[in-house]
Structure formats: C-alpha cells, structure tokens
Write a structure and sequence with these properties.
single chain, four-stranded antiparallel β-sheet, mainly beta, 2 helices
Length: about 650
C-alpha cells in the first residue's frame, strides 16, 4: 500500500490552496470534513435549470457534493452533483480521467439527457450518472470510507444521493438526467437535442427538429421551406406568413398589388384598377361618368378617358353667346341678333335652346361674335350672319338655321372662329377665310376671302388650329407656327414684326394644342402650359408683367395640362383633370369669387374640384363642363351664362341644359 505520508506531501505540492490534515492515516480534504472552505475549496450550491435545486452543497464525512442543476467551478476534486473519487475522477454527464495522485472534474449535463459515465478508483470500476441512478457493472465501485451500491452514491462518513427530478418552468430539469424545457433543450456537458437552437457547454450536442412544425419564421409547404414573405411562385396573391400559417400559403388582401398594373381580387391576380378602394376590371365603365373606363395600361389608380369618345358636353364661347354639344346635337344660349343660336329665331335666350336640324354626328363646334359653325360627320355647317362668310356667295343675309358650307363637305377635323375670320383643318391642311387686314389668313396676301384659302407650309400634318382677333396659329407634325399681327409679340418668334405667312414659334417643338386671345397666344407643350404676347392683365401667367416675345412658362402648370382656352385677356386650362384660370377678372370670369382683381397665377375655380372635361372662354365669361353638367361664370349680358337670367356671377352657376 502507498505510503500515506508520501502521498500527502505530493498532495500539498499539487493542491497549494487545499489544506491537508492527517485523519486516521488518510489524507482528506478539509472541505469534506465539515470545515469551512475558501477560494478554490468553496463548493457552490446549485439549482436545476430554471427551477428549484434538488439539493444544496453539503459536507458529509469526507465527501462534498454540489447542488443538483448547479455549477461548481473548480480544478480540483469537486463535482457538481457528483462524487469525489479517491485518486480518480468525478464528472457529471461527461467523461473524466485521473492520473495517479491527482483528481479531475468535468462539468456535467444540465437540462439534457446525461451520458452514463465510468469512474475509476484504484482499478475498481463503477458506473455512475449524476442526478440519476448509479449502477455498477460486474463489480461494486469502492470509494474511500464506504461502498456505493446500485442506484446511489456513497461517500466517507455517510451517504449523499443526488437523484430525483427538479421541475422548471416549461418542463422537467435534472442534472445528469433528462430535461425538457419550453422552446428547446439546453445541455451543459452532455448530449441533447433541441428545437430551434442548441446551447452546449463542455460536451457534445446535436440539433434536430424536436417539434412537429417548422422553425419559427418559416413555412414548410409541399416539403419545401420558405422564409417569411416569400411569394407563392404559382400565385402572386399568396405569401408565406408564419404568424398566420406555417403549412399553407396566406392570401394577400383584396386590391393588393401583385405586379405591374395588376391587383389581387378574390385570391387571383389580374390586370385591373384599384380606384377609391374598389377593384375594377379592365374596361369597366365609371358608374358616374360613361366617358371613363378602367384602363390598366394607362392609369390604375383613377379612371381613364375613353379614347375617341366625347366625355360630357363640348363647349364654345364668343363675346356674346355660348354653345355646347349635347347628346350629339347642339344647344346655344345668349345673344341671337344674327340667328347665331340656330333655333330659327333672332330672339336672345338666357336658357339653352336646341339648334335646328342637327341632332347627331356633331364632333366639334366654334363660336364667333355673330355666327357659329360645327363639324357634322366631317362636313361644316354654319348659322348666323352675314351668310357670305360661310356660303361663298355675295349674299349679305343671315341664316337662323344651320346651312352646309359648299367648300367644306368632308375631311374637316378641327375649326376655330376669330373676331372676323375663321380657320379649319381639312384633310390635314390648314385653311382660313374672312378678314385678312393683318395677314391673319396666312396666304401671303392681305385681301378678304369668302372662300377658304390654303395656308402655305401647312398643307399636311396639321392637328390643331386657332383664330384670334388679328392673328392665327396652328400645330403641325413638325412645329408650332403663327401668322398675322405681331404688335405685342403674339407670333412668338422673338420679334414684333407682323407676317402674312406662318413663322416658327421659338423653341416650341412638342406642342399638342394652341389657342389665341386678343393679342396673346398660349399652347400646351409636352404637357405644360406656355403663353406669349401682351401681358396687360397677367394673361401670360408668369411671375412678371409686360410683353413677352417668346413663350413663357405658366406658373404651376409644368405638367398634366390636357386642355386650354383663351379669352380676350384671360385663360383657363384643365390640369390634372381640374380647371384653373388666370389673367383678367374684371367681371368674375376667373370664377374664383375675387373680382375684379386679376390673377397672374392660375387659380382654382370656386367649387369645381371635380373632373372637368371641357372649357370655353369668351371676352368676359368662362364656361366649364363637369361630367354631364355645365357651369358658367362672369359677365352675363344677353344671358350668355345660361342660368335663365342676365345676372352676372363671380363664381360658377349651373347652366339649365335641355333634355330631349
């Protein structure tokens, strides 16, 4: 047998902080003999993972054991929930080895399935598991001071067992036994399987899916895993939403975007519109306006105008009367001294009257001071007087009903009537008739003509035309051109030299519409409104006043302008479907309620914030078509506001249109 004294000398050298004493000829650790411990001698009481410790640190005879589920930090012969083996190894849930005269400790499993370990002591082998059941295989493990039998542990001076089960929140936790906890299994020095994650210390662990469903934040669909918000490849209106379901696709909400110009409806994706929080099929007609449809290729958040279809009444205004295309026919109101209302009389009317003989097929209309013309199925009809202006005869009589113009029987697509002349687009060519004192017919001469004459340089490609008091303008496929008087730069070519032939307006390629007033002009260029010429009453809409010889940008109208109209010294335009007016406001023609103050910046028309489809401006009044209704504002001589009386208004009043 080894010399006890020699063994203790060795122990003193190897465990410098461990006190050694002679007891019955045996070297025993003071900490196992009921004495106080400090530093590395201290054994920490443990607790089970998340629960109540099944035992606390105790000192029994010559053996000290830690609390079940706790941790004892030591490099000497101490073990959490295990035993001290003389000259051997102590461990919990792992494998410990010892060499002669030394001891070793391995921190064991906490909250997992502990492994069965083998402890050796002086050649004697026993099998023990901390916190569970210790058994011996073929022999009994002999410890100093006693013997342990199957199912327990023995130490010198007494027996201390650490078996049993400790309950913790969410499951059962034992040290060296089997533990389950909410959300997964955490092991310390042993082997465990966990759902959703693995935490190990000093041992071996493996991760597997302990639960029957997928990991948190994922979906398992048809055996394939998808992360949250993944779109279903077979249906863009479904996504992976683990918070809703981890085993099936979750549908997107009604109207959710599912691609370009596409929205979800009843679980399926289709090209459509989502207007005012309501799903609309492609081609569906606006219930409030038969001239608008859902057109996903154009707009998906609002209604689109029907291509080629007239949307509401088309308007025209002269200094003294007003007309509108209604249900394919024409209604007019105001002055009728020359029969310009076309109802077969010469009596003024403050309420609309139907024009005789024209009941369908009207596509455009224009009004001058004393006569009116319309395009009916490609031909031009006129009424009022004097008749020679539109019949090409020497007659000075008037016609109170429409008559066809012999030289304009087909191919007419646009027309405009000025103070004393008129212009038309015929088969893509620009033609004009009437007074030519300022070269406003554009034929290079200054002679009056009762027949339409060709405007040189505009024989084809003309899409829009406008006639004013003493000058005219047209939009062709190549450019924007003007001709006639240029006293205030109304031709827009950066000069004040008049021209009886068309000249190019400066830097205005891309124009789509043009209008002219008394001594100024305006155009729509790439969706923006631009004006030039005289600016006596802020009719150019710029930030400064004065004559402008080249086009100026109208304030706040850099895009979205779809229609424009010019009166004598004021203008109105439709921008983003809403009407705005600027310039002179002496009689309330701007409709903003602030007459007589002019407005250099476009102002909203009072109470007309809805979609406006047509506008017309006379010398001192303006009219607007909103869906199927018409409103007018300004001076009301001869009843040209159409309200049934001759009282003027600085805000729009409803026109009393007739119903067939």
């Amino acid at each position: 047998m080894r010399n006890p004294r020699k063994s203790c000398k060795i122990a003193r050298k190897m465990a410098t902080r461990v006190k050694v004493m002679w007891l019955c000829g045996v070297c025993v650790l003071l900490g196992a003999c009921g004495g106080s411990t400090t530093g590395a001698e201290r054994s920490v009481a443990g607790s089970s993972g998340g629960g109540t410790p099944s035992s606390t640190s105790s000192e029994i005879g010559g053996t000290k054991s830690g609390g079940a589920g706790g941790t004892i930090s030591s490099s000497d012969a101490k073990a959490a929930g295990g035993q001290i083996l003389a000259g051997g190894a102590a461990q919990v849930g792992g494998t410990g080895s010892s060499s002669s005269g030394s001891s070793a400790m391995s921190v064991g499993g906490q909250g997992g399935a502990s492994t069965v370990v083998t402890a050796t002591s002086g050649g004697t082998t026993g099998v023990a598991s901390s916190g569970g059941t210790a058994t011996s295989t073929n022999s009994t493990a002999t410890y100093v001071g006693g013997t342990t039998g199957n199912g327990g542990s023995s130490s010198a001076g007494g027996v201390k067992t650490q078996g049993g089960t400790s309950s913790s929140a969410g499951g059962v936790s034992t040290q060296g036994g089997t533990s389950s906890s909410a959300g997964g299994v955490s092991t310390q020095g042993g082997t465990s399987s966990s759902a959703g994650g693995v935490s190990t210390q000093g041992g071996t662990s493996s991760t597997s899916s302990a639960a029957t469903g997928p990991a948190l934040g994922n979906c398992i669909l048809s055996g394939i895993g998808y992360i949250a918000n993944t779109v279903n490849p077979a249906n863009p209106c479904e996504t992976c939403q683990p918070a809703v379901s981890t085993t099936s696709w979750s549908p997107l909400g009604e109207g959710a975007s599912c691609g370009y110009s596409s929205f979800c409806h009843a679980g399926a994706c289709s090209q459509s519109c989502w207007i005012d929080s309501i799903y609309r099929e492609a081609g569906e007609v606006n219930p409030a306006n038969a001239c608008e449809i859902c057109d996903p290729k154009a707009l998906t958040g609002t209604w689109s105008k029907v291509p080629g279809k007239r949307c509401g009444p088309e308007l025209a205004a002269s200094p003294f009367h007003t007309c509108a295309i209604v249900d394919g026919g024409v209604q007019c109101w105001g002055r009728n001294s020359a029969g310009q209302l076309g109802n077969g009389t010469t009596s003024d009317s403050a309420s609309p009257v139907w024009v005789s003989g024209i009941t369908t097929g009207v596509t455009a209309i224009a009004a001058g001071p004393y006569y009116t013309c319309a395009i009916v199925s490609g031909a031009v009809y006129c009424w009022g007087g004097p008749e020679f202006l539109y019949t090409g005869t020497a007659s000075t009589s008037y016609s109170a009903v429409p008559v066809p113009v012999p030289t304009l029987t087909s191919g007419v697509t646009a027309l405009s009537i000025g103070a004393r002349h008129a212009c038309f687009v015929v088969d893509g060519a620009a033609k004009c008739w009437g007074d030519n004192s300022y070269g406003q017919l554009g034929d290079g001469a200054y002679a009056f003509s009762s027949q339409p004459v060709q405007v040189p340089g505009l024989e084809k490609g003309v899409t829009a035309i406008a006639a004013g008091v003493r000058h005219s303008c047209a939009v062709s496929s190549a450019s924007l051109k003007c001709w006639g008087d240029n006293l205030y730069g109304e031709l827009g070519n950066n000069s004040t030299t008049s021209s009886s032939r068309p000249v190019n307006v400066s830097e205005q390629s891309g124009a789509t519409a043009v209008v002219v007033g008394d001594q100024h002009s305006c155009a729509i260029v790439k969706g923006a409104a631009r004006c030039w010429g005289r600016d006596a009453e802020a009719q150019l809409g710029g930030s400064g006043s004065g004559t402008k010889h080249v086009p100026q940008q109208v304030q706040g109208m850099t895009s979205g302008v779809t229609a424009i109209s010019a009166g004598m010294n004021h203008n109105c335009a439709i921008v983003h479907d809403v009407v705005k007016c600027w310039g002179a406001n002496t009689n309330g023609q701007l409709g903003n309620g602030f007459a007589p103050l002019p407005s250099p910046a476009p102002a909203s028309v009072y109470n007309l914030s809805t979609v406006t489809t047509s506008i017309a401006t006379g010398d001192s009044h303006s009219c607007f078509a909103v869906n199927q209704a018409v409103y007018c504002t300004g001076f009301n001589d001869f009843g040209k506001l159409g309200s049934g009386n001759t009282t003027g208004s600085t805000i729009p009043v409803a026109v009393q249109l007739q119903v067939r």
